[in-house]
Amino acid sequence: MMDITTLLFWNVMITLVIMPIIHSIRSNATETKRIDILLNKTREEVASKYVTKEEFAISIDRVIDRLDKLDEKMDRLITG
Predict the structure, then answer these.
(1) How far apart are CA 45 and CA 66, in angstroms?
(2) 3-class DSSP state for residue 50?
(3) Once rounded to an integer, what is the mean pLDDT over residues 5-33?
(4) Is the confidence at residue 14, as pLDDT, over 90?
(5) What value does the mean pLDDT take over residues 72-79?
(6) Is 47 within 8 Å of 55 (Cβ atoms)?
(7) Does position 2 have pLDDT exceeding 70, yes or no?
(8) Running DSSP on this structure, what letter comes out for residue 16?
(9) Percent of the chain whose predicted confidence (pLDDT) is above 70
(10) What is the DSSP string of 13-69?
């Protein structure tokens, strides 16, 4: 049978070695989950702040149409 001091020694070793490792793993898992949530929120915010390619193309088309109209008016003023 094992001596009581040997058993106590192994219990202390398991407590002092294994428990910090388990705590570290749990902390890392929690931090990873927190970072994942923050990343998802950032993706949502970025998507809502910027225009899509289609919206940009529509806006540029409107600007070009306006410039064309101004160009026509300037031509009419110059030609008299």
Answers:
(1) 32
(2) coil
(3) 91
(4) no
(5) 92
(6) no
(7) no
(8) I
(9) 96
(10) HIIIIIHHHHHHHHHHHHHHHHHHHHHHHHHHHHHHHS--HHHHHHHHHHHHHHHHH
